[in-house]
Structures are given as C-alpha cells and as structure tokens.
C-alpha cells in the first residue's frame, strides 16, 4: 500500500477525485463479496468520491443497491461511482444537491425509497474540511458551512430516514480521529467530528428499542479529495507520515469497516466506533 504523493492542491471545496495523483484505491482485487448485504438498499451522503465511493462499491459487491448524495460540482466523480457500482451488478441512484439545504436533506431518503422501494442502511459521510493556521481567521461563514454539512445534515437526513428504517436496519456515521485528538489547524472540523461521535452514542441509545443499530467509523489520514482541497501542496506531500504506519490509508482499507457494521456480523454492535487510522491509539 506504499505510495508517493506529489505536491498538489485543489482550490475549490469539495475536491475532485478525478484530479488526484495518484488515484485512490477503491477496492482491493482480493476482496471477495459473500452476499453480506444481499437485497439491501443504502443511502450514502458524500458517496461520489473518497471513502463514500469505496463504501458504495463495497456495498455493491456485497449485493446492495446504492443511492449517493453529492454536490453538482462533483457530477463527474458521481458518474464514475455509478459505473463502478453497476460493474458490480447493482443499481446506483444519483441524488445531486446541497446538504446545507434542509429540504434537500429531508428529500433524500424518500427519493431513495421511491426508486428502490425501501431503505436499510444510512451512511452519513459527507464532510467539509477548512484549514486555518490562526484561529482568529475562522469566519462565521466557514463555521456555519462546516457545521451545516458535517453535523446538521446528519441530523436532518437521519430524521427523515427514520420514516423508512425498521428493525434490523442501521445507521453508520463517519467521524474522524480528530474527534478524539483535535487538530490545531482544523478547529471547526474537529468540533463537528466530536459532535458526530457524541451524536452516534446518543442516537444508538435512542433507537435501541426500535432495534436500529447506530455506529461510527473514525478514519485517520485517508487519501481522498478532502486533503488537497484543504491544505497547501507541500503539506499534501507529507500527508499521513505522522502516524505509526508512516503512510496514509486508502479508501479500500476503510470501506470494509462499513460493510461489517452494516451486516448481520455486527448484530450485537451499537453505539461503537471503529478506528482505521494507521495505528494511532485512541483511549476514548
């Protein structure tokens, strides 16, 4: 999994996977599906690229149809994700829009059900990451946009999804190692990821009686478009070298955690968070 990342930067959030060098690894050729999600339907926010794309493809290899939410700017990436899902023999519904828009969030689950007839798995995954070396440079606009996308959308999409989720279904939230460690240049991002961690724990208790499981995944440095769209080119070239494994992870190394949490293998797991982070010890 070793790779060399040359200096690179993308000027607009969210970044585009099509412009990354090298291209992230979506799924290992040795990964063999075994029908763990056969007949299931999943909705994935931020499903066009990065971890979201890898989750969509892994879910498809396990037998699930997938709907993905993404911004219209990422149409090319979304179309590529659809191709990859369809190559696995499954269907992929594209749902472009703005997760800062409450009405869009509330429509997503219903649109998924109208296409596929049901919804079994919700993956709240979309995220905005803005780096600020000086705390006082954070604008109200930065703050509002980060919270709207990173945590408000989780509440809104989840609330609407509960009209369709039933016993045995599940919700998986993408948090981050920064929820536990913080990061000096990502104060608002770290704060939202901490909120997602607490949201996951609280929601799991809230939905336990309904037998709907709620868990999280807290990735470390994973090679996705989020990174070159957030920091300068030289920082990107050093990405992931500060973890014990001395390298960034690939989306293909994270997505199987979502498969586990979405499947019957995790039937006795709720309120928990998995940590694919390259060896960083999290005592929380």
What characteristics describe this protein?
single chain; 284 residues; alpha/beta; Rossmann fold; 7-stranded parallel beta sheet; 8 helices; 35% helix
Write the layout of secondary structure elements.
Layout: E1 41-45, H1 50-61, E2 65-70, H2 75-87, E3 92-96, H3 102-116, E4 121-124, H4 140-161, E5 170-174, H5 178-181, H6 187-207, E6 213-217, H7 233-237, H8 255-262, E7 273-274
Parallel strand pairs: 1-2, 1-4, 2-3, 4-5, 5-6, 6-7
Give helix % range.
25-40%
The third-level CATH topology is: Rossmann fold
CATH superfamily: NAD(P)-binding Rossmann-like Domain
The number of helical elements comes to 8
Mean pLDDT: 95
**Oligomerization state:** single chain
Shape: globular
* Counted beta strands: 7
Distance between the termini: 28 Å
Describe the sheet with the most strands.
7 strands, parallel
What's the helix-strand series? EHEHEHEHEHHEHHE
GO molecular function: oxidoreductase activity, acting on CH-OH group of donors
Keywords: Oxidoreductase
InterPro entries: NAD(P)-bd_dom_sf, Sc_DH/Rdtase_CS, SDR_fam
Region (Disordered): 1-20
Question: What does it look like?
Answer:
This protein has 284 residues and is of the alpha/beta class. It has a single domain, classed as NAD(P)-binding Rossmann-like Domain (Rossmann fold). The protein is built from 8 helices and 7 strands. It has helices spanning 50-61, 75-87, 102-116, 140-161, 178-181, 187-207, 233-237, 255-262, and strands at 41-45, 65-70, 92-96, 121-124, 170-174, 213-217, 273-274. A 7-stranded parallel β-sheet has the order 3-2-1-4-5-6-7, sandwiched between helices. Helix 4 links the parallel strand 4 and strand 5 (170-174). Helix 1 packs parallel to helix 2 and helix 3 runs parallel beside helix 4. The longest helix has 22 residues, at 140-161. The protein is globular and about 45 Å long. The mean pLDDT is 95.
